[in-house]
Amino acid sequence: MALEIKVPVVGESISEVTVARWNKKDGDFVNADELLCELESDKATFELNAETAGILRIKAKEGETVVIGGLLCEIEPSGKSEAKPKEAAKEEAPAQTSGSSVIEMKVPTVGESISEVTLARWFKKNGEAVAAEEVLCELESDKATFELTAEASGTLEIIAQEGAVLPIGAAICKISGAVAKSGAKTAAAPVAGNTDYAKGHTSPAAGKILAEKGITPTAVAGTGKDGRITKEDALNAEAVKKESAPVVKPTEAAKPAAQSGARSQRREKMTSLRKTVSRRLVAVKNETAMLTTFNEVDMKPIMDLRAKYKDQFKDKYQVGLGFMSFFTKACCLALREFPAVNAYIEGEEIVYNDFCDVSIAVSAPKGLVVPVIRNAESMSFDQIEKEVVRLAGRARDNKLTIDEMTGGTFTITNGGIFGSMLSTPIINAPQSAILGMHNIVERPVAVGGQVVIRPIMYVALSYDHRIIDGRESVGFLVRVKQLLEDPSRLLLGI
Question: How confident is the model at residue 16 (pLDDT cuts 50, 70, 90)?
């Protein structure tokens, strides 16, 4: 009699799941505890294992939504024996343990709120020799990207494949010792002083660039440490690719011109970061009473101040004087005068903050991230600029930690660097407001009864009307405008 496999209970608030992927085909023989499929809910991904050995009969197709307790598949009894795999395992076990040690590497704890990660990419191949502290793979959570390094030198045995969603503590791979059972020397015992293991391997940022441009790492000469391919190498490789003129064969030249306009498509699975950003942005639109108010700022006073002191500022503090420090200081002063803009709703309570942890929106290679400048209200101009540069650099290299991206009380985003004239930024939950900067355009304005040309920037404040009233939102933005148009106020705090 066939055994029915149904959707298990996976959480109190989860009533249905979607069959994301079948790892076995209909009619395949499966062993007990063998992975059958992956199930996705609106909160997490789960793996379903076979309860017994037999022939698989799939009842729910990939992409189908099944309620809790619904039938997924059946396993029919089969006369096929499992003895052979077990015997093979017994034969392999001594080979791994005799004369060498085996280290099983698992998904490390990467943050209190992270329960699972996605295995984004392997840098090493199965059976390849690895050195201690060498980067093995890249793990993605819904908040950040992490690199997993080898705990010891040896031979890599991959357990989890690229794209797999793994809970914290799940096995990723094994590293067997350098000496096999026969005592023969293996590739896992590199010659002392050999550092060629990194040659031809890419950094995460470089790997993404090469993948987007369709260039294989083997075609790029690495200039990084021990021959590793850096981001600059990947960018230069693209330039070389464009300069290299392809050889056109006579038969190719005779093809119709329509071929150059091929209507092709490609599909890519959304990363965990992109899925989380999408889910949270939709949640903010649905769960908050979001409005946006606008104003304009005459940037001439700030631009004149920067032009006068930027060289001295850089010589003294070794960092450039940008607009972000002015806007951050102005927002911190305005937040103290309008505390509701710096607060958030938790249940039926409003939580007010007496500090300003300002989140800075940064466009990273894998998506939008918002690292936080802690206690920005107590920082000087040079300290803010240095922190902005540090966080932006870590974001571009996918090195931001969970702590660096959580806990902000107010967000500033600068769409002007991409040429944006005007926008309505979306609140970064659970915060209640976000300030949007835009590009600077010279426009005729009336000053003292005279028409003059001034560099003008539109600024936008999106806010949650449940906690911030119109008077507070408009007053906050007007205060920011006053501080920016008279920078001496920032120094005096008035």
Answer: confident
